[in-house]
Design brief:
By secondary structure, the chain is of the alpha/beta class. It is built from eight helices and seven strands. The protein binds adenosine-5'-diphosphate.
Length: 217
């Protein structure tokens, strides 16, 4: 059973590393941000209040994400493991997950992607993605070959709704105040935490560091 929790601030590369891990390990990527955006798009399972919070970069209610994650982890494809991305993000969610794990005698491995604040800002403000295939870009750090068009399918790149400057600020504040303490929670509750310096290297190199650290455990 591989229960992996990717931990890090917005823009630390959790989504990118989660994709690489799930491809390699054959376990699903469980991203609360993606699940919530999908729920907002389809208009099912979330209230307008939840959508408004996401739009403003504020965390949504614990019960809302806990229910989404519990349901997702109970599906058959998660029986051999999963990669959690963006959850838990509050102490309440961390306690909820700990209860879930304990009941199943699972111990999670937490991978902390540590990235400098200035790099985070550059990543988030320049971030774009292809609306068709989801390939991520950065107009400064990793630009497409042709001006704002996807290298793979030529689609015009889009900016995520919450990657606007004032919303980025709110998201980083939520991280500092509500999410950072979760790391301490893991450390003091016997969690296995691996810190990976994820600021300066390209995604592939960060991924190699993660695999190396996992093997050394
Ligand atoms: P980020 O790049 O900020 O990590 P995500 O895609 O993980 O973005 O999340 C987008 C938004 O979805 C968050 O700003 C928040 O409103 C909501 N969200 C995602 N995960 C959680 C969570 N575990 N608890 C509360 N809100 C969440």
């Amino acid at each position: 059973m591989k229960a992996i929790v990717l931990f890090g601030s917005p823009g630390s590369g959790k989504g990118t590393q989660a994709k690489l891990l799930t491809e390699c390990l054959g376990i699903p990527h469980v991203s609360t941000g993606e699940m919530l955006r999908e729920a907002v798009r389809s208009g099912k399972g979330v209230t307008p209040k939840t959508a408004a919070k996401m739009h403003a970069g504020i965390l949504v209610k614990d019960e809302v994400v806990e229910a989404l994650v519990d349901e997702r982890l109970s599906r058959p494809d998660a029986a051999n493991g999963f990669v959690l991305d963006g959850y838990p993000r509050t102490l309440e969610q961390a306690a909820h997950l700990a209860g879930w794990m304990k009941g199943r005698e699972i111990r999670e491995l937490v991978i902390h992607l540590a990235v400098d604040y200035n790099i985070i800002i550059a990543r988030l403000t320049g971030r774009r993605e292809c609306p068709r295939c989801g390939t991520p870009y950065n107009v400064v750090l990793r630009p497409p070959k042709t001006d704002e068009l996807c290298d793979l399918d030529g689609e015009r790149l889009v900016r995520r709704d919450d990657d606007r400057e004032e919303v980025i600020r709110a998201r980083l504040e939520a991280y500092e105040q509500q999410t950072r303490p979760v790391l301490e929670f893991f450390e003091t509750n016997g969690g296995r935490v691996i810190r990976v310096d994820a600021g300066n290297d390209p995604p592939e190199a960060v991924y190699q560091k993660i695999r190396q650290a996992m093997e050394n455990r």
